[in-house]
């Protein structure tokens, strides 16, 4: 079975490269028809220089959609063949201005005629196809500008993996996982404190028995995420001990745990959710903002030395 038939649209990039290689190879034969010693890959740069003189390298790259490095390499070859010149600009010595040489100017009419013939032949070629590839490429480029291929693949992957994640309620056998996951991230950035050890070593006593709740995330048969609700003296709940294993990050587990914790706090009759964090934990703070938390300066004194930001979410 043909490679492209087997993979289908998954091989779109490879299929386009094959088509590009085919057309580039045939373009060489076209230049031979006109007795022009010219490389097909030079044409976008040469055409831009010929039609828009006095541009610098960066402007040429922007106009043809190539990298600065790629344009610079082509210009080196065109200079070597005495078709263009590259000189420092009079107004700005840091900018190199590109122009046709006398030899390039002499070549330009023949290239213009060839380009006109190629355009006409290509229009005939496109008319022979059911789908106009030129228009389709424009649509594809627009679609990719709205959402990259990587972002689209990530969305499909995350959707698939999210379906394999289960949220569970804590039970005593989960205590080692609850402590391991939290100790791992705390010790990576800070140090375990007495308040941490009380909750992590004795969650039944310090969290559950006092009216709190613990949620867990399971993926691939392993506990990879935790999140706790600790009941506060004013009837509010503290969102605490949220952790996701490094191997499971990027699957949206933190967001799912956070959303489930907010829903659970509402179900328990909580009027407000409160949390403590540190400003060096950028991804965590972004998650809290996404859940609706906002910074507060009216929180109680923290038992943690690492705490330098307090946040709250009103549930009513």
UniProtKB/TrEMBL annotation:
Domain of life the protein comes from: Bacteria
Keyword line: DNA-binding, Transcription, Transcription regulation, Transferase
Domain HTH marR-type: start-end pairs: 9-158
Classification via InterPro entries: Acyl_CoA_acyltransferase, GNAT_dom, HTH_MarR-typ, NAT_camello-type, Tscrpt_reg_MarR-type_CS, WH-like_DNA-bd_sf, WH_DNA-bd_sf
MF terms (GO), sorted A to Z: DNA binding; DNA-binding transcription factor activity; N-acetyltransferase activity
The N-acetyltransferase domain, residue ranges: 176-316
Name of the protein in its database record: GNAT family N-acetyltransferase
Organism: Hymenobacter elongatus
């Amino acid at each position: 079975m043909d490679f492209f038939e087997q993979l289908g649209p998954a091989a779109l990039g490879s299929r386009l490269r094959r088509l590009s290689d085919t057309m580039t190879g045939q373009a060489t034969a076209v230049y031979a028809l006109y007795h022009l010693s010219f490389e097909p890959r030079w044409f976008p740069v040469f055409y831009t220089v010929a039609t828009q003189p006095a541009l610098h390298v960066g402007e040429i790259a922007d106009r043809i959609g190539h990298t600065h490095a790629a344009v610079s390499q082509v210009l080196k070859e065109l200079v070597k063949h005495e078709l263009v010149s590259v000189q420092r600009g009079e107004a700005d010595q840091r900018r190199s201005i590109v122009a046709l040489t006398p030899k390039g100017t002499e070549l330009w009419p023949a290239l213009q005629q060839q380009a006109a013939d190629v355009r006409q032949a290509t229009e005939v070629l496109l008319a022979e196809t059911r789908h106009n590839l030129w228009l389709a490429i424009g649509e594809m480029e627009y679609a990719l500008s709205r959402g990259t291929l990587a972002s689209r693949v990530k969305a499909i992957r995350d959707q698939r993996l999210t379906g394999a994640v289960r949220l569970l309620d804590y039970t005593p056998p989960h205590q080692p996982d609850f402590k391991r996951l939290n100790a791992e991230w705390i010790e990576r950035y800070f140090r375990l404190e007495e308040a941490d050890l009380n909750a992590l070593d004795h969650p039944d006593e310090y969290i559950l028995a006092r009216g709190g709740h613990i949620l867990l995330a399971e993926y691939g048969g392993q506990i990879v995420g935790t999140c706790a609700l600790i009941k506060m003296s004013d009837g509010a709940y503290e969102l605490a001990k949220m952790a996701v294993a490094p191997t499971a990050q990027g699957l949206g587990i933190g967001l799912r745990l956070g959303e489930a914790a907010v829903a659970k706090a509402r179900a328990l009759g909580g009027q407000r959710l409160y949390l403590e964090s540190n400003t060096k934990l950028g991804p965590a703070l972004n998650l809290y903002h996404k859940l609706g938390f906002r910074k507060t300066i009216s929180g109680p004194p923290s038992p943690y030395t690492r705490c330098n930001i307090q946040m709250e979410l009103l549930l009513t």
